[in-house]
Structure prediction request, 225 residues.
Amino acid sequence: MLESEHQRRAYLDALGIDVWVPRESEPDAAAALRPAKPSDDGDWGALRAAVADCTRCRLHEGRTQTVFGVGNTAADWMIIGEAPGAEEDRRGEPFVGRAGQLLDEMLRAVGKSRDEVFIANVLKCRPPNNRDPQADESAACREYLERQIELVNPSIILAVGRIAAQQLLETDTPVGRLRGQLHSLGSVPLIVTYHPAYLLRSPTQKRKAWEDLRLARRIAAGDAP
Ligand code: SF4
Prediction:
């Protein structure tokens, strides 16, 4: 699928590079051909309840609340980040604040709204002082994320940031070498990109993130990378 000029400019606008040009949302032809996914509220309810009450790791001690994930439970795109920060812990929602706004703009540039995708983190509870998740915490929480992926059954996973990418792919390869290529998690294609918080600090990397989004869009649409 060719990238439209409007889409490119929409993303560049989010980067503070260009002028916003409103555009019509382009239909996802591949999505239109896919059968509708059945929703199972019972499965989701049980999973939400299990996460809300979870004490499997030490992070439950310091949380305000668990951050389960938000969005369309039958989404084609699943966005997976690292762990809740202070604001996410307060609001109970992943990717809020300036980084969340940039993620929203990145999604918008590929024709997706926050409500259309499903957004979750590797960890459902905030690590103290925003430290990196520890291996035993990620292992304890992994089953919840795997169940979310199973229930959403997305066409593409976008792993956002170093921690999410390395933990999902079980590697210590730098994110700069993981991005730009097709990975998979089970049978689900996975693309790695930079975390929007990093992009806010390192704006020269934003064009690479746009390349990652375009790659993810092509794969989600059924095109070979
Ligand atoms: S981070 Fe995950 S495993 Fe640890 S207490 Fe929270 S929900 Fe449970």
